[in-house]
Amino acid sequence: MQNFAVRQRGDVASSFEYVEGWGMAIGAHARVLRPRSTEEILRAFELARRDGVSLALRGGGNSYGDASVNERGYVLDISRMDRVLAFDRESGVVVAEPGVTIEKLWKTILPHGFWPRVVSGTMFPTLAGALAANIHGKNNFAVGTIGDACREFDIVLPTGELRTCSRERNADLFHAAIGGFGLLGCFSRIVLETKHIYSGNVRVRGISTRNLREMMQYFEANKTRADYLVGWIDCFPGGDDSGRGLIHDAEYLKPGEDAHPEDTLRIAHQELPANIMGLFPKSQVWRILSLFNTDLGMRSINAAKYVAGMLEGLGEPYLQSHAGFSFLLDYVPNWKWAYGRQRVDRGLIQYQPFVPDAVAHEVHTELLARCRKVGQVPYLGVFKRHRPDPFWLTHAVDGWSFALDFKVTPTRRAQLWKLCDELTEVVIAAGGRFYFAKDAVVAAEDTARFLPHDKLAAFAKLKRACDPETLLDGNLYRRAFRDWLVAS
Ligand SMILES: Cc1cc2nc3c(=O)[nH]c(=O)nc-3n(C[C@H](O)[C@H](O)[C@H](O)COP(=O)(O)OP(=O)(O)OC[C@H]3O[C@@H](n4cnc5c(N)ncnc54)[C@H](O)[C@@H]3O)c2cc1C
């Protein structure tokens, strides 16, 4: 976010800024309010009401699309409410303010032998943003989403009420606000369970796979043993090589397997090195990547990565720190800048369909073929296995997701959106779902087709009760929710 002016608005710090999604392809100017307490959240609601504008809630701004962008009102950024309030060293239960990041969480608990049960591929999201999106990790098939690790939260409603929610108390609001993308109220306190670990390392195997079928067979054969499974896919080749890639399979170390947990559980052991091969600063790697950010360049990089993966697949399992394994994408700071830095021509979108197990191979193969046919091949493809969860608007299914990164330029944009519309038809016809933390393209009529109607109707009823004036109304709400919520 670029800062234009900072001032106090009714005691809530605020400034006028350009606020964009992580993928940089979607953004807008907005006044950003930065509360430091529950009272200031309430005051921010009052300010928006008084000024006759809507509010979008924002955490760390790591959603790729428009989930925390608001071009017609204010943005309420909770990142300054970032204190860990309590941590029980016996049970691993953490009580935190909403703006605590995943990074701050793991750095607080790791030295005591705990690790977050669910993390995203980057450590920069806040707990509120993670809970609002109901994020999943590379272990979704085994442990569910972050919502499954949440015991309780406090939420401030636009009506001015503060509700404590859990599976036993205000259970409807608990299951709707987790994965509810900040449309019902603002989390102000979060209670999470974390996992006891016996080492700061995980044991990792690389497995090279010749096509999507092989990758899926490996996941299925190993999903009851492995703690984490994630597949990287080279989206360029077609035919027999379609979906070729590399799996990373990781397991926690059992008690006694790490002879020196006191060393590996130190934060210093987890930190990623600042230089590559001790020489080249990582902070500059995006400049080199930008030279390859063309179809030809990315075809070459993907092919080289596939060959490197084949060699890795021949090697023995190795130990890697939790942070190194979990946050691989953070290894190259600002890698997204390789997609351009000028506001007019930059950015990427991620398109991540979740498809039921029975048809996943056929559907994902079809999606890739359609991308290749129109010459819009994703530069990065990541494959994961999921399981259902009880949250009303969840993206997770008993099936598989394929996260596809597409480059956005002025010349590609219209054709790319048209392609995504076509892919969306294929996914919805197959009973698939989408994930609003990644999405930038799905329309309200699509949302109404892929989410269960009883859950949508119940969510609409809660929205009317929690937010009767529709104060919480950002770009994502207007694009993907408003029409069906109003109609329900
Ligand atoms: C490189 C990269 C890798 C990623 N990998 C994964 C992954 O592996 N798995 C995964 O699931 N996701 C992944 N994500 C997506 C990311 O985890 C989610 O977008 C997450 O929601 C970001 O949190 P944030 O704090 O940045 O929130 P933002 O992006 O700022 O906001 C996300 C949502 O939270 C809402 N919100 C913010 N604060 C509050 C609040 N106090 N109360 C209620 N609602 C609120 C916002 O309105 C918005 O709808 C990845 C993102 C990136 C950039």
Describe the model:
- The structure is a single chain.
- The chain has 488 residues and is an alpha+beta fold.
- The protein folds into 3 domains: 2-79 and 469-478, 2-Layer Sandwich (Uridine Diphospho-n-acetylenolpyruvylglucosamine Reductase, domain 2), CATH 3.30.43; 84-196, 2-Layer Sandwich (Uridine Diphospho-n-acetylenolpyruvylglucosamine Reductase, domain 3), CATH 3.30.465.10; 201-443, Alpha-Beta Plaits, CATH 3.30.70.
- Helices cover 33% and strands 25% of the residues.
- It is built from 16 helices and 22 strands.
- A hairpin with a 6-residue loop joins β6 and β7 (94-96).
- It binds flavin-adenine dinucleotide.
- Residues 22, 56-63, 67-68, 78, 98, 120-122, 125-126, 128-130, 132-133, 135-137, 181-182, 186-187, 329, 437 line the site of flavin-adenine dinucleotide.
Question: Short summary of the structure?
Answer:
This protein has 488 residues and is of the alpha+beta class. It is 33% helix and 25% strand. The longest helix is centred in the middle third of the chain and has 20 residues.
Attribute tags:
about 35% helix, about 500 residues, 5-stranded mixed beta sheet, single chain, Uridine Diphospho-n-acetylenolpyruvylglucosamine Reductase, domain 2, 16 helices, Alpha-Beta Plaits, binds flavin-adenine dinucleotide, Uridine Diphospho-n-acetylenolpyruvylglucosamine Reductase, domain 3, alpha+beta, 8-stranded antiparallel beta sheet
